[in-house]
Amino acid sequence: MGSMDSLTDVRGLLVGHAQRTGDGWLTGTTVVLAPEGGAVAAVDVRGGGPGTRETDALDPRNLVQRVEAVVLTGGSAYGLDAATGVAEWLEERRRGFRVGPHPAHVVPVVPAACLFDLGRGGAWRARPDAALGRAAAEAAEASGKAAGASAAPASSAGAASSSGPAGPTGPAAADPVPQGNVGAGTGAVAGGLKGGVGSASVRLPSRVTVGALAVVNAAGSVLHPQTGALYGSWWEGRPEIPDPAVHAEARRALEAAQEESVRRSATAAGPPLNTTLAVVATDAELTRAQAQKLAGTAHDGLARAVRPVHLLHDGDTVFALSTGTRTVEDAELNEVLAAGADALTRAVVRAVLSAESVDGPGGVFPAYRDLYRPA
Q: Does residue 367 contact residue 237 with C-beta atoms inside 8 Å?
């Protein structure tokens, strides 16, 4: 793993979260900022119900070569408005695709994807907007400035909300990405369990770093129904198998929570509407086509940790970013691709283990660590 086992082990990347909770709110937005000048980007969408913005621009056949940010957000299609706030924030800093001779003549291309969390806080119209997207971008920028003030290289993670800010960091001595009920993971649910944000990284023998950030909000389950072990825990080392009695009680509690959620919220009574989102990044120098392959193989990591996956009511989407600070030989590319899948599997596990239980007007969403704490 990387030094902080986090997406921000990829030097130059910044992560910011912003969320709103209480008074009907349970949603948020996460922004991954590339270094100034952008990063090579790609996307692979495999869910049957995606909600995205600017993903066509990432096709290797198309014009735009680099992006300055990627937005992951709650709020379903409404929440994509968060990307507008990020685009405006980038424009003010003259960052984006240049379309004219003046430095201000830029059009920021901000790929974004959303997950379904409508009504989970109790209010149907409580969803991310442009202001929340801007707040997440500002949180990422602030963490980078703080890292610079502490004489660390520019790469860190931040959060802005009632949950409190994350500490400033740089890649040499960085805090990991804030995880759990933050950003786009604030209202995330995975098979009835509380989901959230998780992050992990891999350092290869070539010294290339590959990191992943996952927002786990799956229609499928993250745990084995017969044992209660997390599917992805085999990639975290030896998995812990809960005591059968603990697992049986946890299953009863989870079923009761789901029934109560249906009673409290009409949105919980329909088919599960979800979507797991992810960003996989590396400092290896990749072409756009190679980055797209990285996004595709990373889905294998998602499939290890969630079952079933890529359903009609999911919109599972993986973005890939390459900062390109390390050259790799062709023979090393397979290692990068495999590491992306491994990091994403572990990021899903860490999201589930970091999540905190929620009991509110929109439903009851117990956390794995609360259900299985005796194990």
A: no
Angstrom distance (rounded) from CA 230 to CA 311: 19
Alpha carbon distance 350, 233 (integer Å):
9
> Which letter does DSSP use for residue 268 in this model?
G
Cβ(343)–Cβ(211) below 8 Å: yes
DSSP state of 326: E
d(CA 119, CA 20): 13
E strand or H helix that includes residue 262: helix 244-264
Q: What are phi and psi of 326, to 5 degrees?
A: -130, 130
* Residue 132: both structure tokens together: 């929340």
Q: Judge contact between 22 and 162, C-beta under 8 A.
A: yes
**Contact call for residues 75 and 132 (beta carbons, < 8 A):** no
Compute CA distances 8 → 87, 103, 137, whole Å: 22, 29, 15
For 225-269, what is each residue's pLDDT tens digit?
A: 999 999 999 887 777 899 999 999 999 999 999 999 999 887 766
Position 268 scores a pLDDT of 66
pTM, 2 dp: 0.91
The token duo for 190 is 């995975």
Task: Determine which helix (DSSP H) or strand (DSSP E) holds 358, and give its type and residue range.
Answer: strand 358-360
Scan for tokens 């400035």, then name that residue. 145
The answer to whether the beta carbons of residues 156 and 143 sit under 8 Å apart is: yes
User: Percent helix, strand and coil across the chain, each rounded to 5?
Assistant: 30, 25, 40
Identify the bridge partners of residue 253 per DSSP, sorted by sequence position.
Answer: none
Burial class (CB in 10 A: 0-12, 13-18, 19+), 92: exposed
Amino acid at 247: H
Cβ atoms of 141 and 165 closer than 8 Å: no
Side chain identity at residue 187, one-letter code? G
Q: What's the confidence (pLDDT) of residue 349?
A: 96
pLDDT tens per residue, range 58-94: 999 999 999 999 999 999 999 999 999 999 999 999 9
- Indicate the residue type of 166: A
- Rounded Cα distance between 154 and 131, Å, is 25
Crossing angle (nearest 10°) for helices 333-354 and 288-305: 40
Q: How far apart (Å, rounded) are the C-alpha atoms in residues 108 and 95? A: 6
